[in-house]
Design goal:
Elements: E1 4-5, E2 9-12, H1 17-20, H2 30-37, H3 45-48, H4 63-78, E3 82-84, E4 90-97, E5 100-109, H5 111-115, E6 119-120, H6 127-140, E7 142-143, E8 147-151, H7 155-164, E9 171-174, E10 180-186, H8 189-200, E11 205-209, H9 211-223, H10 228-231, E12 233-239, E13 245-246, E14 248-252, H11 260-267, E15 271-276, E16 287-292, E17 295-301, H12 315-328, E18 339-343, H13 347-356, E19 362-365, H14 371-379, E20 390-391, E21 401-403
Parallel strand pairs: 6-11, 8-12
Antiparallel strand pairs: 1-5, 2-3, 2-21, 4-5, 4-10, 5-12, 7-21, 8-11, 9-10, 13-20, 14-18, 14-19, 15-17, 16-17, 16-19
Helix pairs in contact: 4-6, 6-9
Length: 404
């Protein structure tokens, strides 16, 4: 199988798209999903978070949740709420957020290329989260949540995609958060062949978001090699220079026995510390904001502390190595309940609110990880620390699904 291929996508009827599109299943909790889908019987959260239609005390991983998702999905297909294209297609997906545009390609990506590391990852996955996606895909016999990929510089692909959005889109929806989602269907055989060849010429693709979805698709392909491996996994691939990474900030529940003064003294071993009269949002790598006792500080890592390796030099790594682990005693941020993570889309006000409420003792504002740093980590076969990147805007669940 080539790196990518077209497929017969399952899409919303144009008249139902505005109601149907939903945020990714993993960026909303059950309560938020209930609110978003309230009064909207064809909102895709009825499939991606099917527990919202079951008793409130149900475990989201209960077998009944997956069966409910399958019932709703099947009913929408039978009622032509979702329609499947007659022939294999590519789909061009345009996102517009705050005046910034991304144009990418919806395709079935090769499981074999993923397993051979030609589709490169940068995160560890958790078995329980993989299991959830495997069960959801198997219940529906479909992948409904796309993996967000990006490709390295390719002016040819950029030009091809730009040319395909000159006609009216098949779907054009502005979501509840103001992000505009537009989709074009590519049926022209020459365009499909040209796009397939252009992607095949790339050295690699990179996973931005969706490590658990891609791992789940690979597991299913191992179990069902004829159908699932041939199907590949659902992706949307954008050029790397259009990707927008926001910071992933940190909150810590307590000071690990320190007083504020002793903590600041400890921080000064590796950072220059400057008290500030207002909020501080880092504008360069190597600087961090600290919110502690209603005050903001700028922390600047001492240059000699920055190593050369692609993982160690990341801001998230420097903060953990020189501050969070030795001073706050958090050794495993994946499992330690004393640390929490806040996507940059929520702003610095979220850090202040959580600390001022007493729920957390201090917050850290980070500079966003650069896309080139992510590529360097993936190319080296390494993994990034947890919660290193927050990509915006998010893809919509339900815009195009891949059916086995």
């Amino acid at each position: 199988m080539s790196l990518i291929r077209p497929f017969r996508g399952l899409r919303p009827q144009p008249s139902r798209a505005a109601e149907l599109l939903a945020p990714p299943y993993d960026v909303v909790n059950t309560a938020e999903a209930r609110r978003l889908a309230e009064g909207k019987p064809c909102h895709f959260l009825h499939v991606s978070r099917a527990e919202i239609d079951l008793p409130e005390d149900i475990d989201p991983h209960d077998d009944r949740v997956y069966r409910q998702a399958a019932r709703v999905f099947s009913a929408w297909i039978n009622d032509a709420v979702l329609i499947r294209d007659e022939q294999p297609c590519y789909y061009v997906y345009r996102l517009v957020m705050d005046g910034r545009t991304q144009i990418g390609l919806v395709a079935a990506a090769s499981v074999a290329a993923y397993q051979a590391n030609r589709i490169r990852r940068h995160e560890w996955t958790r078995p329980d989260k993989e299991d959830d996606r495997v069960r959801h895909i198997e219940a529906l016999s479909a992948q409904t949540g796309p993996v967000l990929l990006f490709y390295p510089a390719s002016p040819e692909i950029d030009r091809l995609l730009a040319g395909l959005v000159e006609s009216p889109p098949a779907m054009d929806v502005t979501a509840h958060d103001g992000v505009r989602h537009s989709v074009w269907v590519v049926t022209d055989a020459t365009a499909i062949t040209t796009l397939t060849a252009a992607f095949e010429a790339l050295p690699a693709l990179y996973i931005a978001d969706g490590h658990h979805r891609s791992a789940a698709a690979a597991r299913i392909a191992d179990k069902q090699p004829d159908a699932a491996a041939r199907a590949g996994f659902l992706t949307v691939c954008f050029p790397h220079h259009q990707m927008h990474i926001m910071e992933y900030n940190r909150l810590v529940r307590d000071l690990n026995g320190h007083t504020p003064a002793s903590l600041l003294d400890g921080i000064r071993q590796h950072f220059q510390v400057d008290a500030l009269p207002e909020r501080f949002k880092p504008a360069a790598s190597g600087t961090f904001g600290l919110y502690l006792e209603s005050s903001w500080y700028r922390l600047s890592i001492r240059p000699e502390r920055i190593p050369a390796d692609p993982v160690g030099r990341l801001d998230v790594s420097l903060l953990h190595r020189y501050l969070i682990e030795p001073l706050l005693g958090i050794h495993d941020p994946r499992r330690d309940q004393r640390i929490d993570f806040v996507g940059g889309i929520r702003g610095l006000a979220e850090l202040e609110a959580r600390v001022d409420s007493g729920a957390m003792a201090l917050g850290f504002a980070l500079y966003p990880t650069r896309i080139t740093d992510l590529m360097a980590v993936a190319d080296a076969g390494e993994v990034m620390p947890p919660k290193s990147t927050w990509f915006e805007p998010k893809l919509a669940d339900g815009a195009v699904s891949l059916v086995y």
